[in-house]
Specification:
By secondary structure, the protein is an all-alpha fold. The chain folds into 2 domains: 126 residues; 57 residues, no CATH class. Helix content is 61%, strand content 0%. The chain is built from 12 helices and no strands. Helix 3 packs parallel to helix 5. The longest helix is centred in the first third of the chain and has 18 residues. The chain is globular and about 60 Å long. The N and C termini lie far apart (101 Å). 25% of the residues are buried. The N terminus is likely disordered.
Length: 217
């Protein structure tokens, strides 16, 4: 369990005990040994009940839980769902999530797990523009996927990059910068529906073209 980012003066043993209890649900939902333990539909209401008990599952407890979940391999399917719910319950966890959860998700190649990746993108959208430094760390191919899955992120991120100074821009890879600043693809034009008059004209013209020519004897 990774607790190196938790303030040791605030992290009491009771937080760890409660965190292990909640984290156990996620272990069951991702266990590979037997399909009997793969039941995210059961895990969801169970974790929701825990998260609703805010007197017990405080922001400190949830911080421990989220770090515990990041140590699992593969990442729990409901990881980002829990992160998003924790943020809604405790907005002050935002900086913790940005610096300790989302950044580490990139190190763990979150894009390799579809459900967790979708939650990662959603969480980045909900925390932008603070999440932009995290998104800048994505490989270009996966950043392009973010733009495709969530189009509003791209223009907002372009405005963010344009406001950076030269020293800050120097830390952005050229391929990432070009991807952000590239104009959005132009949608293909939709052909106008044919009016009854034009349809009749087209039909008459086609009939005239196929009518056999009659020659005088």
């Amino acid at each position: 369990m990774a607790l190196h980012n938790i303030d040791s003066t605030k992290c009491e043993l009771k937080f760890v005990v409660k965190g292990r209890f909640l984290g156990g649900f996620f272990y069951l939902s991702t266990a590979k040994a037997s399909n009997v333990y793969s039941f995210p539909t059961t895990t969801t209401p169970a974790t929701d009940l825990c998260l609703d008990e805010r007197a017990i599952y405080t922001s400190d407890v949830l911080a421990v839980v989220m770090q515990m979940l990041l140590e699992q391999q593969p990442l729990p399917t409901l990881l980002m769902r829990t992160v998003i719910k924790a943020l809604r319950a405790y907005p002050r966890l935002e900086n913790f999530v940005l610096n300790n959860i989302l950044q580490r998700c990139i190190v763990k190649q979150v894009w390799s797990q579809k459900a967790v990746w979708e939650g990662f993108v959603k969480c980045c959208q909900q925390t932008m523009p603070k999440s932009f430094p995290v998104l800048l760390q994505l490989p270009p191919a996966h950043l392009r996927t973010v733009f495709e899955d969530c189009p509003p992120i791209r223009p907002a991120m372009r405005a963010y990059v344009q406001a950076l100074n030269e020293q800050q821009l120097a830390h952005i890879p050229g391929s990432v910068y070009e991807l952000i600043m590239a104009p959005p693809p132009t949608p293909a034009p939709v052909p106008a529906p044919e009016t009854p008059t034009s349809a009749a004209t087209t039909t008459a013209a086609a009939a005239a073209a196929t009518k056999p020519e009659i020659t005088a004897n």
